[in-house]
Each structure stands twice: as structure tokens, then as C-alpha cells.
Amino acid sequence: MSESSVIHDIGYQRYTGPRLGRGAVFGAIYVHGLRAAYGLGRSAKAKIFPWLVVGIVTLVAVILAAVRSQTGIVPLGYLEFADAMSWLIIFFVAIVAPELVSRDLRAGVLPLYFSRPLRAADYIGAKVAAMVTAVWALLAVPQFIMFLGAAFTTKKGMSDVWHELGDLLPGWGYSLLWALVFTGIGLLVASLTGKRAFAAGGIVAVFLMTTPVVGVLSILPSTDAQEMAGLASPMSLVSGVGEWLVPSAHPGLMIGRYGPVYAIEALTLVVTCLLLLLARYRRVAAL
Questions:
Q1: Percent of the chain scored above 90 by pLDDT?
Q2: 205-218: per-residue pLDDT in tens?
Q3: What pLDDT, on the 0 to 100 scale, is given for residue 17?
Q4: Which of 43, 39, 207, 31 shows the shortest CA–CA distance to 133?
Q5: Torsion angle of C-alpha atoms 215, 220, 224, 228, degrees rounded to 10
Q6: Are 193 and 103 in contact (CB under 8 A)?
Q7: Cα–Cα distance, 165 to 109 (Å, whole number)
Q8: Taking residues 31-35, what's their average pLDDT?
Q9: CB of 266 within 8 A of CB of 176?
Q10: How far apart are the C-alpha atoms of 225 and 263, rounded to whole Å?
């Protein structure tokens, strides 16, 4: 070192605070993902579509609750409500899934995420948990409004309230199945591209392009083909599981003795999507 060299102390110090580790990072990504799903903390433009869907679904639930409380007629049960709202959920997922994963791919921030101590499984787990929570809440909260309208707006005893709660809980479980299937497919498709428009179009295409296949198979002369037609589309697949668990919940859907097959395929579909997601991001983390 020459005599003219000078070492300047600009105040850098070693970090001595607590190191929260993977759990805290997982929680932060989960909370951020859940907020991003509804546009919280972002511009007003990002809030328009998610909250429009929330408003429509909630309005339908309020109307159904009002009709039931005034007339005693049940226009839609909890399972049927989830089926009826599924088309709105498709477009909700098509907008939200690219926000959760495609933006990170496009911005090139994944190497920062995977530096340490976060792992690919943690990243995927947090994103999946956030998406499942957002989709499930989108169905479960309106279902709870329907429950309040059915249980507490008319003079009923506690036995009737408990009976109504017994109807609500399977509805929540069914909504969770919808959320798992939508999340698995939506995040997997969105993870393949950093362009949100392409990701959104791909997600919608997966659901809409498989629906006509079900229609074609359902008109075949074979009874077995008709009863297994729902396996060709994620939407009818979930409805088939619901019909198997709660018979007569979907009167227009014939599944015959193939209910367990629907359940096995639904489980396999969700697990496969999650494993492919994990493989995708392990590859990204290794780059």
C-alpha cells in the first residue's frame, strides 16, 4: 500500500440481529402472495378485476340468502354454489396466477429468492398456499353469508343451526377441492412463461378447451363412456367428486360406479401439478 493510500470508514457494520430463517421467508412470501391475489398494496388498476369478482360472487350469495330467508326455498346449495361460480373462478385464477409467478420470472428475481436460506420447495409451497387460500376464501366467505342467511334470519332452534352447519362444512371442503385443482393447473401453466398475457390465455384454454371433449364423450352410446366423460375436464372432474361424496348434488352429471375413479384422478392431478411445479423451480434454482 502506498503512502498516499487512505482507508475510509464509511460505517458498514456486521449484522448482529436475529436471523429468522426459512420459516419467516415462507411466511413473508405467503402473505405477499395473498395480498397480491387481491391487489392489496398495488395500484387501483390491479384491484379492479379481483374485487369485481369478489363483488359479483358476494352479491349472488346475498341474493340467495335473502331469497331463502324470505321464502324458505333453497335456490342453490353450498356445493351447487361452488359449481355455479366456477366460471368466474377460472378468470380469477387466470389473472392471479401470473401475478404470483410470471412476474418473478419476467423480473429475473428468482436467483435472489433462491440465494439462501429459501429453497425451491419453500417458494412453491408459499405460492401454492397463498393461491389456495385466495380461491378458497372467494368461495367460502359467500358460502358463510348463505349460512348466516339460512341459520339466523328465521326462527330456528339450535338443532336446525347445527344441521345447517353440517351442510356448510362439506361445502367448504368442496370449495377447497376446487381451490386445489384451480391452483395446481393455474400456477403450473403460469410458471412456463414470464409473459402474463400468455400465461392467462393458457390457463383459460386448459379449462375451456377440455369442456367440449366432455360433451362429445357424453353423447356416445356406451353407458360407461358417458359416466366417465367427466374425467376429460378439470371442471367436470371436480363436479364428479362432489357427486360421489354428496349424491344428487349434481343431478345432470352421471358418474355411475366411477366415483372413486373421479376422486383418484383429482388427487393425481393435484399431486402431479405440484410435483411438476417443484421440478420446474428446482431447475430454475439450479441455474
A1: 29
A2: 888 888 888 888 87
A3: 73
A4: 31
A5: -20
A6: no
A7: 45
A8: 91
A9: no
A10: 17
Residue 10: phi and psi, rounded to 5, are: -100, 15
Cα(9)–Cα(246) distance, integer angstroms: 71
How many CA atoms lie within 13 Å of 86's alpha carbon, on the beta-carbon side? Answer: 26
> Which 8-state DSSP code applies to residue 43?
-
Alpha helices by DSSP H, the chain: 21-37, 44-71, 78-84, 86-97, 103-107, 110-113, 120-152, 158-190, 196-218, 223-228, 234-245, 259-286
Prior bond of 212 cis (ω within 30°): no
- The rounded distance, in Å, linking the Cα atoms of 97 and 54 is 16
The span from the CA of 271 to the CA of 124, in Å, is: 13
Q: For residue 186, how many other CB atoms are within 10 A of its CB?
A: 31
CB 277 within 8 A of CB 191: yes
CA–CA separation, 171 and 77 (whole Å): 8
Per-residue cell: 252: 345432470
117: cis peptide before it, omega within 30°?
yes
Quote the cell numbers at residue 90. 377460472
